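REQUEST ID: PR-0412
SUBMITTED BY: lab tech R.K.
PRIORITY: routine
TASK: structure prediction, single protein chain
INPUT:
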Amino acid sequence: MSAADSLIEQLNRAFESDNIDELRSLHESPDMNIRRAVAKNSNIDSDIANDLLYDPVLNVSYMASLNPKCTISRNFCNVKLTKCVVCKKDERNLDCLECNK
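STATUS: complete
OUTPUT:
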């Protein structure tokens, strides 16, 4: 299995899993796109959502703030939310270099 296949597999699990232990593990991934996909998953619990709310990558923390399981508020008004940060595209098909936004 190639690294790219492994990444796609992890992204699929990050989006689709309802296993909280698996999601807890995936939310600690070094890959920003995997953490961002976990932040979008409606099956995460509030601990994961709240943890991702303070992820060092704004793309991840912003998506976590939108998850209904997030129980902490974070004010993003002092931060420039670029089109990349608010992008709703599926990370499995994301090609930022080809983005025309």
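NOTES: The chain has one domain: 3-98.
REVIEWED BY: pending
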